[in-house]
Design brief:
9-stranded antiparallel beta sheet; 8-stranded antiparallel beta sheet; mainly beta; Beta-galactosidase, Chain A, domain 5; globular; 304 residues
């Protein structure tokens, strides 16, 4: 029995779910609730879209996104795990992908259920292949929960099942849809120190809200649990509330860099901004034997 048929058999009674093969060997779960709809690819347990009823999408997916096994998807909520950015050995180990391997390997849908309040909760676990095990030899387990409702809640739980501590870097690399990034701002990061990756990794301090006049790639350190995207074009605010996270990454490529990437679409660079819940740079996690770390984020859109 192929994967699509097996999923339909396993979840035959869940009328809030459907499954589709978006490209050869590329299956996605489609979730619909009374509040919102979402699409999640089994590759990477990658939330591709989330759209509250009656609103523009909150999670942005490029019109030129490519769906292929082993290739990351442009947009949605890519999972950066178990490291963020280049691997520590990237200079000598070119096979180690930037942002880890979690977003490009298959994940299994373990459970899907409707909660008493009408939200739908899904749980995923990675299907580790030989390359992933070679790159991450630490005994560990990881589960990813996605809850679709009036808000989108995502939670990444990593457990150290071995007897030696390891370092863990991670991010929920979420692409948010905005009317025009040149008019949007990000509030809640004033006073935070950040690493400016566009300016030679210089350390700076944020003064007021973040606005966008060119390529932006910053790792804000020691951040609190909430920030928001203020979008005057779509007349809304997107609240990002995080737990288990000490870093916030803000990224937008601008036109020239997006053109080189080839999968943003003509107006893509202006219609998105990434505000990422993360543990990166100074804020990587040292996970003790037997410990579990949970990093979570909730996304909510409200009228401006």
């Amino acid at each position: 029995m192929n994967q699509l048929a097996e999923l339909r058999r396993r979840f035959a009674g869940a009328d809030f779910l459907s499954f589709a093969e978006l490209a050869p060997d590329f299956v996605a779960v489609q979730v619909r609730t009374d509040f919102s709809a979402a699409t999640i690819a089994l590759q990477g347990a990658h939330v591709m879209t989330w759209q509250p009823n009656g609103q523009e999408p909150v999670v942005w997916l490029s019109s030129a996104a490519k769906f292929a096994p082993g290739k990351s998807i442009r947009g949605g909520v890519p999972l950066c795990w178990p490291w963020f950015g280049p691997h520590a050995t990237a200079a000598t180990e070119s096979a180690y992908p930037g942002h880890g391997f979690a977003r490009t390997i298959p994940w299994e849908l373990l459970d899907a259920r409707m909660l008493p309040d009408g939200r739908v909760r899904l749980e995923f676990a990675p299907v580790m292949n030989d390359a992933a095990r070679a790159q991450w030899p630490h005994p560990s387990t990881v589960k990813y929960g996605v809850t679709v409702g009036q808000e989108l809640d995502v939670a990444l739980a990593t457990s150290n099942t071995g007897n030696i501590a390891f370092e863990l870097g991670q991010a929920l690399h979420t692409y948010f849809q905005v009317g025009d990034v040149r008019q949007a701002t990000v509030a809640g990061l004033a006073g935070c120190e950040y690493i400016d990756k566009v300016d030679g990794a210089k350390r700076k301090r944020q003064d007021g809200a973040v606005n966008f006049t060119g390529e932006t790639d910053r790792v804000y350190l020691g951040t609190a649990g909430c920030c928001e995207i203020v979008d005057p074009v779509l007349k809304r605010r997107i609240l990002v509330t995080s737990t288990g996270s000490r870093s916030t990454v803000v990224w937008t490529p601008w036109a020239e860099k997006a053109d080189k990437m080839g999968d943003f679409g003509a107006d893509g660079p202006w219609k998105m901004v990434c505000v990422e819940t993360a543990n990166a740079a100074d804020d990587v996690i040292s996970l003790a034997p037997g410990a579990t770390h949970v990093m979570s984020a909730q996304y909510r859109a409200i009228p401006a």
